Amino acid sequence: MTHADVTSPEALAGLRRRYRQERERRVRPDGPRQYLTADALPGDHAEDPFAPDTAGREALHDTVDVAVVGGGFGGVLAGARLRGAGVARIRIVEKGGDFGGTWYWNRYPGIHCDIESHVYLPMLDETGYVPEWKYAPGEEIRRHAVRIAELSGLREDALFSTSVTSLTWDDTSEEWIVATDRGDAFRAAYVITATGTLSELKLPGIPGIEDFGGRTFHTSRWDYAYTGGTPDGGLTGLAGKRVGVVGTGATGVQVVPPLAEAAGHLLVFQRTPSSVDVRANRRTEAGDIGAGRPGWARERRDNFLRIVSGEGAEADLVADGWTASAVLLEKLLPSFRRSGDRAAFERTYEAADAARMEEIRARVDRVVTDPDTARKLKPWYRYACKRPTFSDAYLQAFNRDNVTLVDTADTHGIERMTRRGAVVGGTEYPLDCLVLATGFSVGVSGVHSGRLPVHGRGGVRLQDAWRQRGPRTLHGFTGHGFPNLIHLGGAQSASSVNFTHVLDEQAVHAAALVAAAEARGAVVEPSPEAEDAWLAVLADGPDHEWFHAECTPGYYNAEGRGRPNGPIAYPHGAAAFHDLLRHWREQSLHEALRPRTSPRPHASTPGRGISSPPDA
Ligand code: NDP
């Protein structure tokens, strides 16, 4: 089919109808309620299979300068940037048994980052580390988080296998009291929350799932004792076994090829197919990527962000499937942002989208030999309705004799589980093992959900304050009534597909706030007027909701219901947001500070770490 065939007015109208039908086929009345939390099922679904034995540590009642909740890239980068700003006692509190966050938990076979390693791994300039592959395996990424933490001297004070259970502001001493599930109740002048946005695993509420007699586990708690092998393969425990996978998102697409290699028979229970583009992973020479030159990684990362944010750049340094789809990623290009001509934008956007998705569907036909399987593997929705995926082995796996695709779209997923296996369309598929690649709940682990109670000035509960008036922050980081509490990776800031870049910019910003407060004997707390001004900026942008409202259900759009009310992100993209923050730090940082009522009880002496000024 030519570009004109796909983008003619008739073709676009037909496509719109098809997308609407496919969406309607998939929306479930129970929406997000279809999922279960890990503790809703008997078994060990949430347990940490990777943790060293940390039982028996003494509860802590001491005082630190900064407590960081979460030891993923957000927390580690916050720690590293605070160290760079001279903060001495930094305590990261982490639920997992080590640093790494999502890369600690997700160790499933085949795991790689789908963003180029040279822009995804943060602090490459500072650590001198150069990844070998264009797309790095998960273990290399996890080790890099550990590297940054150790070079920044963050291990000694860190608490692992520990969850923060409450944060309470002490009005008298102007400190936070941090309580944990291990009996700790220590004090911190500042708290940074870096709890991740997709860290609470979710299980499918398939009727009878608790009756299944085989082994079941979520991809973020991989059971290598059962499967054998490592993330690199060698899953000898699955030889001769019938293995089912539920979920064909970014995780499912990565885990299917190694399972297909290892299992006696693999059944892939698909509800909505992913868009699967070319991966072309390869070893990279330092020369190819300009490594070694001072600032090479920062320059490459900025270039990628500008392109995927729709800002454009003279050269495309990364040149992969993300940058090729830049026009479709942030939905609204700067020219349209400025001109406000939505109709013109939508026409251009829809045609580009149709051509891109047609390429992706044509690839399925080229790769998959069985026409019926190929038909079922084709995605019928707009690009980036679901997170785009990339693989040179996923579609190919369906050409193997031991792999069966079971389409469950008409029954909204597996109908029910029995003791022996899964039932779809009245047919029972016997299974020895069911792997759940069913993803994560959005934002539930953060302070926004109320799972981590936060009591600010005067004992006011953050979640109550936000329930009454809606979330209120300055730049997504800080809020009135909650002094010296800084959120990373949350709502009302900006996001991007390269999330570690976002987190690093936010870590730099958090460190600058702390450094400024220390230098001026102040606390970090914006006025209500500064919050109002920021909310007005958020509200004064183009509306992205039309896009999500027309998409197939998934976690991007609350399972087809559209996004929650109210602006949740800076509307002009992450690159523009970072520019705004830099400018604000130079001109207006005082807006987020107010004087302390009494001097801070203990002084900080600079700590050891990777030397980099916060605004490097
Ligand atoms: P997703 O939420 O993206 O996908 C979950 C999958 O499970 C979907 O295919 C969903 O189908 C399916 N599913 C859920 N319930 C059922 C059911 N009852 N029956 C059949 N299918 C079901 O989770 P992922 O873990 O794949 O990805 C989550 C996010 O993690 C990604 O979007 C990305 O942000 C991140 N990630 C990043 C990677 C990287 O390389 N950077 C790699 C992997 C993940 P349906 O679509 O119909 O709801």
UniProtKB/TrEMBL annotation:
Q: Which domain of life is it from?
A: Bacteria
Task: Show where the FAD/NAD(P)-binding domain sits.
Answer: 65-267
* Region of interest (Disordered), ranges: 1-55, 592-616
* Keyword Flavoprotein included in the entry's annotation: yes
Keyword annotations from UniProtKB, A to Z: FAD, Flavoprotein, NADP, Oxidoreductase
Q: What residue spans carry the Basic and acidic residues bias annotation?
A: 21-31
Q: What Pfam families does UniProt report for this protein, alphabetically?
A: Pyr_redox_2
Q: Which cofactor does it need?
A: FAD
| Signal peptide range in chain numbering | none
Query: Which family does this protein fall into?
Result: Belongs to the FAD-binding monooxygenase family.
**Name recorded for this polypeptide:** NAD(P)/FAD-dependent oxidoreductase
Species of the source: Streptomyces zhihengii
Organism classification: Bacteria, Bacillati, Actinomycetota, Actinomycetes, Kitasatosporales
